[in-house]
Amino acid sequence: MGDVAAAIKVMPQSPDIDLEELQDRLEATLPEGAEISGVERDDVAFGLTALIPTVIVPDEEGGTETVEEAFAGVDGVESVSVKNVGRL
Length: 88
Fold this sequence. Notes:
Elements: E1 3-12, H1 19-28, E2 35-45, E3 48-58, H2 65-72, E4 77-87
Antiparallel strand pairs: 1-3, 1-4, 2-3
């Protein structure tokens, strides 16, 4: 079937969150078969910066759902949303 790449926007709970540590925690929670190919940062407002990891997942039922759930459970994460998804 192949793989898909998904850009997932992760909003931290506050501007005081250490983004390097948050990124490490996100990488540690990836489900089996998923990998991060790169991470961008998006300055949102009032000093708040979102992380936007591009996650490679197998093209199967459920898609990015397990990754979204894993990221949402990470300490310091306020919200998780998929920005875009495309086939590799």
